[in-house]
Amino acid sequence: xxNPVHLRTLVEVTRLGSFAAAASRLGYTASAVSQxxxxxxxxxxxxxxxxSARSVLPTDAAxxxxxxxxxxxxxxxxxxxxxxxxxxATSQELRLGIxxxxxxxVLPRLLRSPSWPDLGINLNVSVAEPGQTIQGxxxxxxxxxxxxxxxxxxxxxxxxxxxxxxxxxxxFRVVLPKSWGIQANAEVAAxxxxxxxxxxxxxxxxxxxxxxxxxxxxxLHPRVAVxxxxxxxxxxxxxxxxxxxxxxxxxxxxxxxGVVVLDVPEIRLARNIFALLINEKATAQVxxxxxxxxxxxxxxxxxxxxx
Length: 307
Description:
Elements: H1 4-16, H2 19-26, H3 30-44, E1 49-51, E2 56-58, H4 60-86, E3 92-98, H5 100-105, H6 107-111, H7 116-119, E4 121-127, H8 130-135, E5 145-151, E6 162-177, E7 197-200, H9 206-217, E8 223-227, H10 231-239, E9 244-248, E10 259-262, E11 270-278, H11 284-306
Parallel strand pairs: 3-4, 3-5, 7-8, 7-9
Antiparallel strand pairs: 1-2, 5-11, 6-9, 6-10, 6-11
Helix pairs in contact: 1-2, 1-3, 1-4, 2-3, 3-11
């Protein structure tokens, strides 16, 4: 399904000639607009822009899509206007399941945004790991939307009655104690980390098995000093010298001063983050809500890479 929000953004980008101008017009950041256009390209399977360091040029496909998008958006506006004449405006109750990192670092930023009160969503939030929130989506469950992640091909399954929408990736990064004397953002080979203590997931969990396979593939056999499934705890323990750790970028939003982030080219892993929606709850309000979360996630990811 093509997101109408993305179509509206496409119209403004082609009309104004830049992501930055469209962002200013629509109240987004330029990177959020770029994220939306990348998502639209994935959804449609066509290249919409030729990107360079200084400009974005719409392709012929983008211009054709823009012409049709204007018609579609006009029809949507007409539909909403007709509905508003026959039904009083009401807020939508949304029962949301969300995993801890997203609840800690992303959701509060959206709830603090000036546009949030106008969205008309009343949230009921349950913070839990993906396996638990997915159970709440099953027939007769207590949730309408679940925000979940999947690491690699770990065994995460969801009901066939829900739709899945990708909202972003949360890349893992290697962190070391600053006291070990390695410069921040240094490029380090995995083999150099073979003889240092590590903070690792508890064995047996799907995430732990994916990480273990990845480490083994680059001949890294960590000497485990700590088992921890709590990324904030792992960062704090790394900051006092207990060991190296592999943590997602979301957790780095609150990293302590005593750690440095490295670039280890052999270790490339991400949590793929999705919204799982019960189809009848996937209203335009919910689409805007999910899109807002996606934009904030992208902003945090960029800030982490810069930092």
